[in-house]
Design a protein that fits this description.
Radius of gyration: 20 Å
Helix content: 40-55%
CATH class of the largest domain: Alpha Beta
Largest sheet: 7 strands, mixed
Number of helices: 13
Number of domains: 2
Distance between the termini: 39 Å
Number of strands: 7
């Protein structure tokens, strides 16, 4: 079951009021948006953006009142707002985490706990690059770079070398194959830690396939532009590189006097939330208000 991350804190910092409009740029399974819709009635709306066409279709069938659902990428935020004439905007949410549906039901190889085809795309129709393509065609140095940079994997070089050796014998097509390759590359004593040895490699591949960091950098200036005066932006990130992009963007624009930062330090989940939802362990929330 999908559990919405930092829901209480999102509502606290977005502060939805009756008849106000909000944008959920990463709709997922809609937990945050439904909480907002409870508070911005009777006339307030939520513009929900969902990149995955299959997840979008499932959500569209639910027919939620006052929800404008769009199958698109948040990199086109300004264009979407103009197309749907969705104004004024009092708050924008980015939850940069992966939905439980992608891990458990998409069948696209996001999880190292299932044996699936190595795809890892959120939007297969818009994106030709798959994890298979990276693993079987990219040069060793480039694979090492993404594992080290996006996955912060200390054994990036060893894993990249093992991948090159394995693909010479057979194409790497399944998650199960990749997990075995990683286990061969990582010293045994490091395989008994809390985090599964494949975690960082899978994370790095997902970020590379979906160009997640560049997309975030494209979307943030658009969010600032479409947000109304005294509107708020709340961003939940799950990776130090994402958090750094958000933190720097917030600081730069605060210096220009465009907004005020509401979170001096990132807000993290409580021990109680982590007990219910261990997947939230790396979540960090930052928020601003436009002046």
């Amino acid at each position: 079951m999908h559990i919405t991350v930092l829901q209480k804190e999102v509502i606290e910092y977005l502060r939805p009021k009756p008849n106000e409009n909000f944008i959920d740029t990463t709709f997922g399974e809609g937990g945050h948006s439904l909480a907002i819709l409870e508070r911005n009635k009777p006339e307030g709306k939520v513009l929900g953006i969902e990149l995955d066409p299959i997840l979008y279709q499932k959500l569209e069938e639910r027919k939620v009142e006052r929800l404008v659902l769009v199958n698109d990428s948040y990199t086109n935020l300004k264009e979407i707002v103009e197309k749907y004439n969705f104004k004024p905007v009092q708050g924008i949410l980015f939850d940069l985490g992966m939905s439980s549906w992608h891990l458990e039901k998409s069948g696209r190889g996001f999880s190292f706990q299932k044996d699936e085809a190595l795809d890892m795309r959120y939007g297969p129709q818009q994106n030709p690059l798959t994890a298979q393509e990276i693993l079987n065609r990219w040069p060793e140095k480039e694979i090492e770079r993404i594992l080290g940079e996006y996955g912060e994997e200390r054994f990036a070089r060893r894993i990249a070398r093992e991948i090159i050796g394995a693909r010479k014998k057979n194409p790497i097509r399944r998650t199960g194959q990749l997990v075995e390759i990683i286990k061969r590359a990582i010293p045994k004593k490091y395989q008994r830690q809390k985090i599964h040895p494949a975690t960082r490699t899978f994370q790095a591949l997902r970020i590379a396939v979906n160009d997640e960091l560049a997309n975030l950098e494209k979307a943030l200036p658009q969010a600032l532009e479409v947000l109304g005066k005294e509107g708020r932006i709340v961003i939940i990130s799950y990776h130090s590189l994402e958090d750094r992009i958000v933190k720097n963007f917030f600081k730069e624009n605060a210096k220009k006097g465009l907004w005020q930062i509401l979170t001096k330090k990132p807000i993290i989940p409580t021990a109680e939330e982590l007990q219910k939802n261990p997947r939230a362990r790396s979540a960090k929330l930052r928020a601003i208000i436009k002046i």
